[in-house]
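Re: the multi-chain job from yesterday

Posting the exact lines I submitted so nobody has to dig through the queue logs.
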Amino acid sequence: MQRYFVSSSRFKDNNITITGDDVHHITRVMRYNVGDKIICNNEEGKAAICRISQVTSDEVQVIIETWLNENVELPINVTIAQGIPKGDKFDLVVQKGTELGAHAFIPFQADRSIAIWDKKKAEKKLQRFEKIIKEASEQSHRNKVPVIKSPVSVKDLIEESKNYHVKLFAYEEEAKVSKHQSFGNIINRLDPGQDILVCIGPEGGFSPKEAGLLKENNFSPVRLGPRILRTETAALYALASISYHFEEMRCSECQQ
Amino acid sequence: MQRYFVSSSRFKDNNITITGDDVHHITRVMRYNVGDKIICNNEEGKAAICRISQVTSDEVQVIIETWLNENVELPINVTIAQGIPKGDKFDLVVQKGTELGAHAFIPFQADRSIAIWDKKKAEKKLQRFEKIIKEASEQSHRNKVPVIKSPVSVKDLIEESKNYHVKLFAYEEEAKVSKHQSFGNIINRLDPGQDILVCIGPEGGFSPKEAGLLKENNFSPVRLGPRILRTETAALYALASISYHFEEMRCSECQQ
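And the result, structure tokens for all chains:
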């Protein structure tokens, strides 16, 4: 069943009014009509099966039939801070990152970021990312839509990091040191509900200056496997590993 | 240091003769000359630091200086069998799959594959994939270059599967069953050196007929986390999880 994220303010008793782009998607792309069913998610992460009761050119009215008791959200809130990469790699990070359960994304301007997002460019980019994230959330049946924040500097990122229980950064140099802190050990110590900030450098990684600054501010350097990953692959490795650890390896509902 | 994969037949005593596209890359892209150093990998997975001793228009001669004692290969041989997807998604699977440590790739024509690769198309595709895989192997500092096999049918895939210790397939329906076999438990039972075949359906997943056939032939259905992943994301989730399990969680060299 097709899923749509609808602002909680649009929920009134047992009725929901859908407006904007979703109307086009429901009526034109999916060709749904009165009587057809869709799933609506609100901003609190609750979802309900709904029946379409009325269709006009700019609104779709639905009636809630059954609230769903589902939870497909990662038990750890993972925020991916990604050094601004070249080209459209950020598109891939937000799309795949959403499928893999990310809680939020923060782009940051790193020393080695070749692309620079000025204010105008950033605004356009953010609109694009929000659209990709919403679509990926619907497609992957997320209960919540991840947040994308405005681009920040490394200094701002360090300030922001005070809101997290655990913070780490992928550091290529760490992969070359034989005695290093294990990503696995850090993940293993996390408790459900905690907030973790995973920072990935742009192409070329973090500069030694940035790495020093992050270490001083209690970010743990980690390697993500022994191979050298491209910047856009690193975030996906981190998210898939955390999902595997908490959702597949510690799967309480699974057959042993 | 830039890395090149060179056929073992080109290694003679302490000398290696490099020909083909790599000559262009060494002399024109990297602008290396006599005296500069590169890393050469042979097909057995051994790598050496080499010094360029001679450059002509179609050959680069290098002298081996030091054999490296490095191993960045996944301890499990993971073969990704991917249902032929639409567009250029297979490019992403082989590029990211190589970075994440895949041993081999097998494209297969599934019931729900919309694209059909006839013989001529398949030949062109395979050449393209080989190039992407070689470049990704060099970039990610792999010791071995993954193999890409010719497209097969599901019947052929089942025949091929007899060569593997463990075989599984991602089955979306499995994510909806509360009591299901855990991907984590299957991975946990693997021993280093074993061969595992991970099968991913195309867009829309496996047909019920294919799923039945695979189950009859001892493929275990698994979910890859509770969210619905796009076809090209599923292979990356499986590889990242196996890397995390064996290379980061069980990291013997890491600080505890």
